[in-house]
Design brief:
It is an enzyme of class 1 (oxidoreductase). This is D-3-phosphoglycerate dehydrogenase. This protein has 524 residues and is an alpha/beta fold. 33% of the residues lie in helices and 24% in strands. Bound molecules: 1,4-dihydronicotinamide adenine dinucleotide and 2-oxo-3-(phosphonooxy)propanoic acid (HPV).
Length: 524
């Protein structure tokens, strides 16, 4: 039974769903890196929020891990390239906490506009400082939105409802989408010059790190108020402190910090500065949403192979997963056959889906072909890391769909470019579930690719099969099944035999038989 570790505080519904779906689950939060490394090897799945850091080191110790599920949006605490290289799927829940986070940004905007935390502190201290607190209205003001994705567009919608003008900077925002959202598309400099409030809603990337740098803060309107509910690192914290101290920036509200947990910061205690401890996603509703979603997604993957919201692997719905599963088995066998037969100097590979197969999501099928192919080099390869490994090796991968049905109602053909020219193999599913090879290097031959096999290419000539049978028999090798195909009578013939004992010690004898061109021991 697969085992899941929940390592950050999560709504109890997550554990409940894991158990209902037949998984074992442990909830162990607050572990140090070393404590996590000591236990992670036991688990197939790891469910996290933002506190657990899934580093290369943690992944290296996670020898059984198949999936990391992020109950939330940001995955900057997960080393995705390392997870991919190790074949671990990383998934998040991109929508479950977005309304809640947008509402937090709006809450912080009002807190800044009316200095609510300071007014509260003063009132509860019995001071009744009615004249000290003079706020600003938001109506009619301009909100500068940096990042107009999922959360940014909800913030924009709420701000428009508050009768604000919204100016948005997002390189991926199309003019049409800006019109649909009711916002003005702007350059960053235009936004900085116009905004009375600025709110950030981008991930932390090389292009967004310090997007509010000292230089850009200097381009803002005097008296601007800034909100960051996205990621620490989007604002240069030292420059922000200086701008607050000088009075250029009237207020700033940060939910996120460069270093978290932020137990100390030069910003703390600065007039006009408000902070919350990464609470953007912390509402009952959002936490129930993300806990349910992440548990369902992870359970789907561990129990059925379905992938939803995969960040390093194509999505495959739990409904489609059972349909695709037999194709994955076929694809992996065909990839493996090609890998075992022609693995020298592979430069290009094409995966062609024909008939019913052409209706399916091709990405996982291609991933499985590559996994089969690359397993010749490494036994830790799977459909998650295979595409990355293939890219690393400079293998050019092409996918082709062919809606028409040929001789078979469904077919996968794998063609590779080798030093000897193009080679292709093809397979189908019998009864929609049993993988069957139907063609090898242009020769029709039907075979189950299973267990230990012997592959022989020879000149079609009378008596050959008898001699081969005798040679194997004398070596104590029992033949299970026997599959034969040939280009034309007397031409090149292919033999695929399943065998009960290893044929490796007998390969030289088979190779020495008259008419034999190629001999290989295969295993599936
Ligand atoms: N404080 C909290 O508790 C929470 C924080 N977040 C964070 O909020 C952020 C936004 O989340 P979503 O809206 O769901 O993401 P999203 O991916 O839907 O939107 C991000 C937007 O940023 C834009 N963008 C990327 N590079 C940009 C650049 N250089 N300049 C301007 N825009 C750029 C993208 O085009 C995209 O439209 C993420 O970093 C996420 O981790 C999300 C949930 C809770
Ligand atoms: O979903 C996100 O990106 C968040 O930042 C929320 O973080 P949390 O799950 O509250 O630790």
């Amino acid at each position: 039974m697969p085992k899941v570790l929940i390592s950050d505080a999560m709504d109890p519904r997550a554990a409940q769903i894991f158990r209902e779906r037949g998984l074992e689950v442990d909830e162990i939060t607050g572990k140090t890196k070393d404590e996590l490394i000591a236990i992670i090897g036991d688990y197939d799945g790891l469910a996290i929020r933002s506190s657990t850091k899934v580093t290369k080191e943690v992944l290296a110790a996670a020898t059984n891990l198949k999936v990391v599920g992020r109950a939330g949006i940001g995955v900057d605490n997960v080393d995705i390239p390392a997870a991919s290289a190790q074949g671990v799927v990383v998934m998040n829940t991109p929508f479950g906490n977005s309304i809640t986070t947008a509402e937090h940004a709006i809450a912080l905007m009002f807190a800044l506009a009316r200095d609510l935390p300071e007014a509260d502190k003063s009132t509860q201290a019995g001071k009744w400082e009615k004249n000290r607190f003079m706020g600003v209205e938001v109506t009619g003001k301009t909100l500068g939105l940096i990042g107009a994705g999922n959360i940014g567009s909800i913030v924009a919608d709420r701000a428009l409802g508050l009768k604000m003008k919204v100016v948005a900077y997002d390189p991926f925002l199309t003019p049409e989408r800006a019109v649909e959202m009711g916002v003005e598309k702007a350059t960053l400099d235009e936004l900085l010059a116009k905004a009375d409030f600025i709110t950030l809603h981008t991930p932390l990337t090389d292009s967004t790190r310090n997007i509010l740098s000292a230089e850009n803060l200097a381009k803002t309107k005097k008296g601007v108020r800034i909100i960051n509910c996205a990621r620490g690192g989007l604002i240069d914290e030292a420059a922000l402190k200086a701008a607050l101290d000088s009075g250029h920036v009237a207020g700033a509200a940060l939910d996120v910090f460069v270093t978290e947990p932020a137990k100390e910061s030069p910003l703390f205690g600065t007039p006009g500065f408000i902070s919350t401890p990464h609470l953007g996603a912390s509402t009952n509703e959002a936490q129930v949403n993300v806990a349910i979603q992440v548990a369902e997604q992870m359970a789907d993957y561990l129990m059925t192979g379905g992938v939803t919201n995969g960040l390093n692997v194509p999505s495959l719905s739990a409904e489609d997963a059972p349909k695709v599963k037999p194709y994955l088995a076929l694809a992996e066998k065909l990839g493996s056959l090609v890998g075992q037969l022609a693995h020298d100097n592979l430069t290009k590979i094409a995966v062609e889906l024909e008939g019913a197969a052409a209706e399916l999501n091709s990405k996982p099928i291609t991933g499985a072909v590559l996994a089969g192919l690359m397993r010749v080099y490494s036994d830790t390869v799977n459909m998650v890391n295979a595409p990355f490994l293939a890219k690393e090796r400079g293998l050019e991968v092409r996918e082709v769909r062919n809606d028409r049905e040929g001789d078979y109602h469904t077919l996968i053909r794998v063609s590779v470019q080798t030093a000897q020219g193009e080679r292709s193999v093809a397979g189908t599913l019998f009864a929609n579930k049993e993988p069957r090879l139907v063609e090898i290097f242009g020769i029709k031959v039907e075979a189950d690719l299973d267990g230990q096999m012997l592959y022989v290419v020879n000149e079609d000539a009378p008596g050959f099969i008898g001699r081969l049978g005798t040679t194997l028999g004398e070596a104590g090798v029992n033949i299970g099944t026997f599959h034969l195909g040939r280009r034309a009578a007397g031409g090149e013939a292919v033999l695929l035999l399943s065998v009960d004992q290893s044929v490796k010690p007998t390969l030289d004898k088979v190779q020495a038989l008259p008419g034999v061109k190629t001999v290989k021991a295969l295993s599936f």
